[in-house]
Amino acid sequence: MSACDQTFMRAALEQAREAAKNGEVPVGAVVVRHGEIIAAGRNNPLATHDPTAHAEIVALRAAAQVLGNYRLDDCEMFVTLEPCAMCSGAMLHARLKRVVFGAADPKTGAAGSVLNLFAERRLNHQTAVQGGVLAQTCGDLLSSFFRQRRELHKRQSHPLREDALRTPDGCFAGLPDYPWSPNYVSDLPSLAGLRLQFLDEGPRDAPRTWLCLHGNPAWSYLYRKMLPVFIAAGDRVVAPDLIGFGKSDKPKREAAHSFSWHRQVLLELIERLDLRHVVLVVQDWGGLLGLTLPMEAPERFSALLVMNTTLATGDAPLSPGFQAWRKMCTEKPAFDIARLFARGIPQLSAAESAAYSAPFPDQGHRAALRAFPMLVPEHPHDDGADVARRARAFWQDEWHGQSLMAIGQQDPVLGEQAMWELHRRIRQCPEPVLLPEAGHFVPEHGKAIAQMALAHFTR
Description:
Elements: H1 3-21, E1 28-33, E2 36-42, H2 45-48, H3 55-67, E3 75-81, H4 85-93, E4 98-103, E5 128-130, H5 135-156, E6 164-165, E7 183-185, E8 196-201, E9 209-213, H6 227-232, E10 236-240, E11 250-251, H7 259-273, E12 278-282, H8 285-290, E13 301-306, H9 320-331, H10 337-344, H11 350-357, H12 367-375, H13 385-398, E14 402-408, H14 416-425, E15 433-435, H15 446-458
Parallel strand pairs: 3-4, 4-5, 9-10, 9-12, 12-13, 13-14, 14-15
Antiparallel strand pairs: 1-2, 1-3, 6-11, 7-8, 8-10
Helix pairs in contact: 9-12, 10-11
């Protein structure tokens, strides 16, 4: 291909990019006469409600106006995508001398892919045609456009239920150290149309998957320091936002939440994603719920990384620290989330503390935060107590995977006493990693813990 051809194709690409900005399929074209661009066009059928407003047609019309003649027999057309039958016919009718295109179109291309009108000798004019000029660049632009459109369609295909709220995307703009794209599911049976968000990074066929479950009032942002370590190791990482938290939908009513329902959602998500060779990573409610999951499908789980949490079995009193937390949540349901994290984790920046508040722009979005403290099973017949007792027996007698425990020693809610009791219940769990500077939200010290866990489970 000549340098001139590339120069003119780049001009056509600029037109294509302008089309993309307007939401049109990114195809651009220029008409060249005697080595100079005399007209340009870009796809515009959506804005003009005109099925003929392809880039080539727009450019042909503009060139004809410039020359005052619909015959363009001394002109060349440069277009980023192989012309369709309509545009090819118009080019032949205009008596173009030459047509140069970038990417081939295997579905509708009429310059050699599906058919080749330019090679039809029975027509009374023959136009020279050449393809493949900057084909990769032209094709990448189209692929990127359609990928983004599919992602947008996927996001928009989860209608919001009338009894739920959805945090506006703008609330999550510019979060520090959280670059990952959301994934959504709303057709799990237990969701009944509610949209659940989960991060899913790394190869789907990775030899190991880290399932990271957050607590209250956190969300998947909690694991932002651990994810990069696991991803860099070639592993897969799945980190859902529980319903009511993060980017997941938020039922308006506190009564919508129950221990059994949230547990069932997680079980169905694991089944839907077909997670295997799972390292279960839990903290706070991530453990209250998550520690009850492996006994239902032990073949899916290979290891456990457990940080400050508990099994609420209903046959032992809740800790004074938790009772104090529950009392505070009851008396001050509008507590400042950012301030809570800033006080508990002194090394957090103001932007990081604010990020934890991002999913909850007003009181209406906080029903889960009000509900969850009361959902912790306190008595033997409370919802979730029986399943927690069964889980306790599983971890003590049936668990055959690897385990690692990290304890934030400054935690006033689920600190050392609760964790040593849990440690006693986990079969063959080695000595815990003690973190004298860490409080309740241990994953905030996550990079070092992630590296330690990676080395431990790799051994």
